User: Which sequence fits this backbone?
């Protein structure tokens, strides 16, 4: 699987490429600036890009802007953004095109490399991965009288994991319940939120995120 | 059919325009009190225009006009002849003008062939007819019998005039009453010169109705209707004013700034109005008052400088009026109003003189505060009070800024010390422990390493929160508009946003404004019990205006130690101001204003 890595700090960039190489990813390019990233993305058309939000030249959200620009050129180009912060505003912009194949994680998540590699693979496969912190905030800002408060505790947990982009299998493992129980919960969630049920994992995540973002 | 159609049109209009549409009938009723004049018709037409063009303003004006119409009705009832305050005469009564008769006191006058001297009053005035021998000059100084004639005419004139002023309400209300009665028996016998005409000198005076009768409701219905309007107006006021409050609150900082700089200018319209009242309500006196108001609005500094002159002129008018009554009776002694005093005799003239002295003293007191201050500014010399005030304000805000920066540094130091630093120490100790136990028991070492990783995550989280408190990432990346948008996304209260900010601001201003909005919004969430908040950020003509409103319980007070005082100080560093409007029961509106320029138009780098 071919990856483009964009990170301006040498140590982190080096660490990332090592980590990815160790998991049998092919590093197509490792760049340190936003213009470099845009060129690399359009030239190499990688299977997935791992991008730091804050990049030169402006050290603002250049990485995000370059990724969004590349996705406008190549719709659905898989991009996983890493950042020291997660901002709902940026999560919204990433999700706005409804094409999926996006991820948005805190840099800390790199620490648990299996989960991180899983996330990269999910994004590369067209899935959506949101940092738990984004999901918590999305759920937290709902006001009291919304349908989301009719969910049971377990349903809420399933919804959170679903919004992070996990498959039914992963959710079942995480919560120590059967896959059948998970699909029962998801059906119930979709009914309570008034969403059209969908068996496709990716479309399901997008539906949930769109609902939470509305 | 027609009635149904009319009813539909009326209900549809009422729905579209709201209760404010009532402004038209209410103002029309109020104006009917003053009679159908050009200006009352114009005012009613203005009311119609306001209802159609600015329904919100009409809704706000409705209770005001109801209250004022009610008060005016009560005043009319009270001052009507026989009413509890019947002695108060109408300020707006037109003084009668005896132009040709007044000339008697000044110059010679030809007695016409018919032997009559006819003095005709102005519009709706009256006439005094004096019969005198034909073919003679009446010229001052009047000697002998002519002096007697002169004195009689003057007395008649004064009596007629004073009675007219006093009874003006009666005159206005109904058909004119002949005032001949007050003239007494004239002429006295035996003074008339020989020769034709033999007819006695007679004097008569009559006044036609100045304005048409007020109508059915001036009688017994006046007091109940006035009370009803007053109560309704007072009941409606808080409800109707709610709509305009956000706009008023948004303008409050500006108003406060204006008042601080130009408060003396506000004296000009009342001073001019008092002076003009002495001449009665005429087109040119109204124009003078309007001109004064325009001067205050457009050129407040000039208006402030004019105030002492206007007061001096007003005092001069007062002295002249007072002086008139100290000499022998004459046509120049018109009873007239000077301020609240009706000057109609030597005693009231003294009161007018005292009033004039007060005006003069006020004018003198204002000279150093208006003209003096402006002259000093223009020609140097003494320190400019404005500049001194500015220096004081800058010293204050600089002190606040330095204090705030020091406090902020202390907070950061403490947070780092208790948070990240402590975690790093723990991390080091953990790793040291790993070193020790690794050769012996790898499992224990593994647990320690997991713990160390957990600690590093916590340290990172704390650093993240700390940095967010210093400068939120979106603010640094994208500026105020997006940062507030992100803030709203993280706020658990439905909040509407209205942002018009076509560029970035300087970083310190952005930061101060962001934390101001964050503080206001946090207060709304924590204390107000509001269900909804609204944020409005607009930049126009070099001024950033921010408004944070919520529909909560109100009662916010910057002096009560919420973070608003800190916000006010922080904004003060940039000459920004903060105004809080938060009556008990809400809603709360926090308006901020910071003068600042846009750095660059918003551009996307890709």
Assistant:
């Amino acid at each position: 699987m071919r990856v483009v890595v964009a990170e301006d700090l040498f140590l982190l960039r080096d660490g990332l490429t090592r980590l990815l190489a160790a998991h049998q990813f092919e590093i197509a390019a490792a760049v340190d600036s936003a213009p470099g990233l845009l060129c690399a993305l359009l030239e190499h058309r990688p299977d997935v890009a791992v991008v730091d939000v804050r990049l030169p030249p402006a050290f603002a959200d250049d990485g995000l802007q370059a990724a969004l620009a590349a996705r406008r050129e190549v719709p659905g180009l898989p991009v996983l953004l890493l950042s020291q912060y997660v901002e709902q505003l940026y999560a919204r912009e990433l999700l706005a095109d409804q094409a999926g194949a996006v991820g948005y994680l805190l840099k800390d998540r790199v620490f648990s490399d299996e989960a991180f590699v899983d996330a990269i693979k999910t994004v590369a496969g067209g899935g959506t991965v949101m940092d738990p912190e984004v999901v918590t905030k999305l759920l937290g800002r709902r006001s009291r009288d919304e349908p989301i408060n009719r969910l049971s505790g377990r349903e809420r947990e399933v919804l959170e994991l679903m919004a992070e982009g996990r498959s039914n299998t992963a959710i079942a493992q995480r919560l120590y319940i059967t896959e059948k129980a998970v699909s029962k919960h998801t059906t119930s969630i979709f009914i309570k939120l008034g969403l059209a049920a969908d068996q496709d994992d990716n479309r399901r995540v997008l539906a949930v995120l769109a609902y939470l973002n509305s | 059919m027609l009635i149904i159609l009319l009813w539909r049109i009326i209900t549809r209009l009422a729905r579209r325009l709201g209760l404010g549409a009532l402004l038209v009938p209410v103002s029309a009723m109020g104006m009917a009190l003053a009679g159908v004049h050009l200006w009352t018709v114009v005012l009613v037409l203005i009311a119609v225009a306001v209802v159609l063009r600015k329904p919100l303003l009409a809704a706000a004006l409705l209770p005001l006009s109801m209250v004022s119409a009610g008060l005016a009705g009560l005043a009319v009832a009270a001052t009507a002849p026989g009413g509890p305050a019947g002695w108060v005469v109408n300020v707006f009564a037109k003084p009668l003008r005896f132009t040709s008769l007044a000339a008697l006191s000044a110059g010679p006058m030809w007695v016409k062939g018919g032997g009559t001297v006819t003095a005709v009053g102005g519009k709706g005035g009256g006439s005094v007819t004096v019969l005198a021998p034909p073919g003679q000059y009446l010229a001052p100084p009047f000697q002998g019998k002519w002096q007697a004639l002169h004195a009689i005419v003057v007395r008649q004139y004064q009596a007629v005039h004073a009675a007219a002023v006093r009874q003006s309400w009666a005159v206005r209300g109904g058909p004119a009453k002949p005032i001949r009665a007050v003239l007494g028996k004239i002429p006295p016998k035996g003074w008339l010169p020989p020769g034709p005409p033999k007819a006695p000198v007679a004097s008569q005076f009559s006044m036609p109705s100045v304005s048409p009768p007020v109508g059915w409701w001036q009688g017994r219905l006046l007091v109940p209707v006035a009370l009803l309007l007053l109560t309704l107006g007072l009941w409606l006021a808080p409800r109707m004013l709610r709509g305009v409050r956000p706009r008023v609150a948004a303008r409050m900082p500006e108003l406060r700034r204006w008042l601080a700089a130009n408060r003396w200018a506000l004296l000009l319209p009342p001073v001019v109005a008092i002076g003009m009242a002495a001449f009665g309500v005429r087109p040119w006196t109204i124009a003078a008052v309007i001109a004064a108001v325009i001067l205050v609005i457009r050129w407040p500094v000039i208006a402030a400088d004019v105030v002492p002159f206007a007061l001096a002129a007003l005092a001069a008018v007062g002295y002249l009026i007072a002086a008139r009554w100290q000499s022998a009776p004459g046509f120049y002694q018109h009873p007239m109003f000077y301020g609240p005093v009706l000057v109609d005799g030597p005693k009231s003239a003294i009161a007018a003189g005292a009033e004039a002295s007060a005006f003069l003293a006020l004018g003198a007191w204002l000279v150093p505060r208006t003209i003096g201050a402006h002259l000093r500014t223009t020609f140097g010399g003494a320190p400019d009070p404005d500049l001194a005030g500015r220096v004081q304000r800058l010293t204050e805000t600089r002190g606040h800024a330095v204090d705030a920066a020091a406090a902020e540094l202390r907070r950061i130091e403490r947070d780092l010390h208790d948070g990240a630093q402590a975690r790093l120490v723990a991390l080091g100790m953990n790793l040291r422990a790993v070193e020790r136990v690794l050769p012996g028991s790898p499992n224990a070492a593994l647990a320690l390493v997991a713990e160390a990783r957990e600690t590093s995550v916590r340290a990172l989280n704390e650093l993240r929160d700390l940095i967010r408190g210093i400068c939120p990432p979106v603010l640094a990346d994208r500026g105020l508009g997006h940062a507030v948008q992100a803030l709203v996304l993280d706020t658990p209260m439905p909040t509407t946003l209205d942002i018009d900010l076509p560029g970035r601001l300087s970083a310190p201003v952005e930061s101060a404004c962001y934390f101001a909005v964050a503080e206001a919004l946090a207060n709304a969430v924590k204390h107000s019990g509001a269900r909804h908040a609204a944020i409005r950020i607009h930049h126009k003509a070099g001024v950033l205006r921010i408004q944070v409103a919520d529909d909560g319980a109100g009662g916010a007070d910057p002096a009560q130690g919420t973070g608003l005082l800190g916000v006010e100080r922080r904004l003060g560093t940039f000459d920004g101001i903060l105004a809080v409007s938060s009556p008990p029961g809400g809603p709360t509106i926090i308006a901020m204003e910071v003068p600042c320029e846009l750095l660059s138009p918003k551009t996307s780098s890709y």
